[in-house]
Amino acid sequence: LILLPLLLISACGEQESSAPPPPPVIVSQPVVKTVDDYLVYTGMTRAVQSATIRARVSGLLEEMHFEPSTMVEKDQLLFVIEPEFYHAKRNEARAALNAARADLELKKSELTRVERAVETNAVSELDVDHARAERDMAEAQVMNAEANLSKADLDYSYTQVRAPFKGLVSRNLVDLGNLVGQGEQTHLTTINQISPIYVYFEAPERVVLERLDERNETVVQGVEEERTAVAVFVATANDDGFPHPGHIDYIDNTVNPQTGTIQLRAVLPNADLDLFPGLFVRVKVMGRTLESSVLVVERAIGTDLGGKYVMLVGEDGIVEQRYVTLDDVAVDGMVRVAEGLDGSETYIIEGLLKARPGRPVTPMTPEQAQQAAQRAQQGG
């Protein structure tokens, strides 16, 4: 009996001395800085203007005056389609017009003579009416000849196929020497204006309405106030970051009832011609500037039935579970905390499985953890 208390005291001392230390965790402090709000969508590039160049007259394709996949200027000559036949038709139409004009002058002179003769009763009123009808028919023949000459001039102009605007031309789809325009308007090539270039994408109606509210777009008495363009940045599949700047210039006037989205369009200068129509791209739409934003590492965010949370470490090393409210802003792997943190806290970024609310931990910064790992490696 006298030895029993001594044994119990000895056992308790051994348990206290063998208790493990608090588990180590890596901690950090939130970053507080000004960030720009943005959202990223998927879109597709499209040419500002696109023209399918077709043969509008029939004949042999005789000449080609461009290199495939190069820039062509407005009204630049692209193709020549057998002009000799249409040149002859134009001369024929011009000759017919001259003949019609000469006949009109003759009919006018005859009418003048008949009108003078009727004053002396040398001819009847019926002869006057007949001369006037001849004059009117001659005038109609002149108008018909002028129309035929205009059509002949137009057909002759179609033998020289020119670019309707400045743009990037495709390859020739028909080789020289082939008959084109016979029974159909043969497709010769395609021109796309890609500087600037459009990007079309869909955004949720809620986001679009928020952006409109931020821009204070209002219509007062039918006059729209001056708008501030919303900046966007575009990236292709192999781009790092978003290197192509632009701005939104069009918002559709109808919400898609099936998807709840609205179509938007961004215009990009594309001066280097890096983008071309049909590309799937990512569109970063810039929003408001958020000052004093609290940012935490995304991997430090946990989720349970109560919502999103982070594990904080107090000055006494005790863990606290703090529920937070996040928004859609993400910057370099960090997310913005809208509510729950003020930026002065210390939170756990690695070792979350070791942390329990109300239990102590051994906090270390990433630098301290790296130094400890190096010492352990050297000691081993």
Describe the structure.
By secondary structure, this protein is of the alpha+beta class. Helices cover 29% and strands 38% of the residues. The protein has a six-stranded antiparallel β-barrel with strand order 2-9-14-13-12-15. A four-stranded antiparallel β-sheet has the order 6-5-3-8. Strands 21-1-22 form a three-stranded mixed β-sheet. A hairpin with a 2-residue loop joins strand 19 and strand 20. The radius of gyration is 42 Å and the shape is elongated. It starts with a helix and ends with a helix.
Short description:
With 380 residues, the protein is of the alpha+beta class.
Mean pLDDT: 87
Number of helices: 5
The rounded distance between the terminal residues' Cα atoms is 48 Å
Characterize the largest beta sheet: strand count, sense, and whether it forms a barrel: 6 strands, antiparallel, barrel
Provide the low-confidence segments as ranges. Answer: 217-226
Based on helices, strands and strand pairing, what is the structural class? alpha+beta
